[in-house]
Amino acid sequence: MLSFELSRQLVCLAGKKRAKIRKTMRAVVQRVASASVEVEGRTVSAIGPGLLVLVGLHESDVDSDADYICRKVLNMRLFPNEKTGKTWDQNVIQRNYGVLLVSQFTLYGILKGNKPDFHVTMSPERAKPFYASLVDKFQKSYNSDAIKDGIFGAMMKVNLINDGPVTMQLDSSQPSRNTNDAVEEP
């Protein structure tokens, strides 16, 4: 038998409308021993230890999405602390490591049958300046010399040596844990 309190909670949950989640910026963050980007056979960017961040821009992205991704990536505790022995204790800033940003519109690709469809990605005309402003946010929030990026719109070869491997997916519009903050569907 369900307790009275548990059954009351289930009734409350069943009566609530589902939170509407707006699709927004996506980042795939990989902890790396090193990473680099090549364009037409030459290396255009490289980092040693740090984070490789693949960035997908959605057509509905706004500046607050870029702020969120920048803040979260720079503060993700994905590195061990050798002094304390804690595994997930330090961020890229505390370790003075590099960040390599790579624009990747295919992160919002949708398979329709066997062919990918990219209709929800931000248009290249809007995405290029938006991505440049994201890179600028990272440079202003950390050591600008530690922030590297590929060439927007170019065919790139991304080389990396995973460390771990540790890979995290981050979406700027996460559902709120506080149900009072959730936007309800009509």
UniProtKB/TrEMBL annotation:
Residues 169-186 have a biased composition (Polar residues). It catalyses: a D-aminoacyl-tRNA + H2O = a tRNA + a D-alpha-amino acid + H(+); glycyl-tRNA(Ala) + H2O = tRNA(Ala) + glycine + H(+). It is an enzyme of class 3 (hydrolase). Its EC number is 3.1.1.96. Its main location: cytoplasm. GO terms for cellular component: cytoplasm. Keywords: Cytoplasm, Hydrolase, RNA-binding, tRNA-binding. Residues 167-186 are annotated as: Disordered. It is found in: Cytoplasm. The keyword RNA-binding applies. InterPro entries: Daa-tRNA_deacyls_DTD, DTD-like_sf. One of its GO terms (molecular function) is D-tyrosyl-tRNA(Tyr) deacylase activity. The keyword DNA-binding does not apply. This is D-aminoacyl-tRNA deacylase. It comes from Nyssa sinensis.
